[in-house]
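S., here's the first fold you wanted:
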Amino acid sequence: MNNKTHKICVYCASSTQIDDQYFRDARCLGKLMAKAGVTLVNGAGNMGLMAETADGCLEAGGHAIGIIPSFMIKEGWCHEGMTEIIETTDMHTRQRQMAEMSDGGIFLPGGCGTFAELMELITWKQLGLYLKPIVILNTGGYYDSMLNTLYLAVAQNFMRPQHADLWRVASTPDAALQMALDTPLWDTSIRRFTKI
């Protein structure tokens, strides 16, 4: 595994009322990142898959950087055990810093917030504004419907065929991490395909 990439942002749910398979994959990914010497970047949440990934990473001796807006800290939602916590003024700044600080993103199952982050990064990459790997960890087929919608957008010319390469899909944490580390940077020349 090529670990020249040193920081990977993991985007995922804060929900605690979800199936155990999601927690298992989240913790496993955190441990794998630590063992590979890759720093975890996430939203610093103290619940759900965000906390599970961070705990797995930290327990395996890794480093975990959390980026979180002030209002979430005031609500008591911040994971206090992170190696480093970066406080932001708002959600938009948080998202920008998560993308800028990391060398790629892995998306675990999540809700509206995770969906929004995924769509934003795909859009930025389509426009040549974000060139790093985007990997979807499709635990239990969670993202099947969303992926079908994206491929339908390609099939019906809302996106070009080249845009189906903006993201990669993995079925295991190990495969997701390897894809995040090995996928080359996106070619900015693809921007010419943005307009259909």
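And the second, which I think is the more interesting of the pair:
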Amino acid sequence: MSIEKIEDPLAADKIVRRTDKARRSYYQFYTDKKWGSTEDMDLMLDSSKLGIEGTTGLIEDYLIRLGYVEN
């Protein structure tokens, strides 16, 4: 809200909902997949559990194990 200079929480919520709807529509149109479905996800993390450094370390290790990044 501070970045967009929006004072009204209801207005901010409306913008978030509109943006999410547009993202969902775009995703579903171009992928023919359902927005929010986990069946095509490779890796999902809750960064609040590990923090920024822990999360980035885990992602880096994942990419190394897949051969996308050299150690």
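Why I say that: Residues 9-31 form the longest helix (23 residues). The two ends are 40 Å apart (CA to CA).

Talk tomorrow,
H.
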